[in-house]
Amino acid sequence: MGWVESIQKAINYMEEHLLDDLTIESISRQANASAFHFQRTFTILTDISVGEYVRRRRLTLAAQELSRTNCKIIDLAYKYGYDTPEAFSKAFRRQHGVSPSEARKYIGKLTFYERLVIQVILKGEIPMKYNIIERDSFQLIGIKREFSLVNGENLIGIPKLWDKVNSDGTDDQLGKLNNGQIKGLLGVCVDKRILEQNETMDYWIATEYDGQVPEGYSSLTIPASKWVIFEVHGPMPDAIQEVWKRIFSEWFPTSGYEHAGTPEMEVYTDDDASNPDYYSEIWIPVK
């Protein structure tokens, strides 16, 4: 099964089980991927988390049923996964801009989210610059935080961690400790499979370092890998987010490579990240 087909299979599974107790683990299993890598790929391609997609689709169907039937609002709330009518009404208003009772009276406009269909995008007008290297294992040092993958909590927590590192001087300290081949600060995503409904990932802000681990820092060994290194030119965070999207929507579907499942890295150089010419890199292990 190809890359695009596997992602579409997972989306179809979500659609077929929208009224069930869906978990990221059960969804990602349809794509033969870990929860972390599936959610990351899905979010990059769609700009929303898996949980947000499910919520939007459920509330879309709830609105349709509300306007077409006489089903009680309390029954709709339970049917579409809400513990109380109040929680359902709050989520309904946030998406549609009106309450369920107003929607039943045809007051206001409803927001409809169609089911997703993944397509390969073939583009040639803007080249992607990358090179492929092989490296033996190497050591990183830095700080690590564990984030939940549930409801996209990692997408909220990681930017806050970077804000803290940039404000408390940790970024400067790590920059001075760097003595490896990769120059700059690294953002490293490490997939962690624990238990279903308890999916987490580790995120590291680190630098390459060969030697005894300094006090106050932890170490991470990056395994020997074949790496595809993509160049990124432009200010953060827009430039790197755009390249991530092109990697998964254009490069992976046609490259013949698969993600190796080991940690991937973003490399940030020691320059002004708001500069239009700012240079950074995305390192992806492949097989």
From TrEMBL:
Residues 8-106 form the HTH araC/xylS-type domain. It comes from Peribacillus butanolivorans. Keywords: DNA-binding, Transcription, Transcription regulation. SMART domains: AraC_E_bind, HTH_ARAC. Gene3D superfamilies: Homeodomain-like, Regulatory factor, effector binding domain. It holds the Pfam family Cass2. This is AraC family transcriptional regulator. It comes from the Bacteria. One of its GO terms (molecular function) is DNA-binding transcription factor activity.
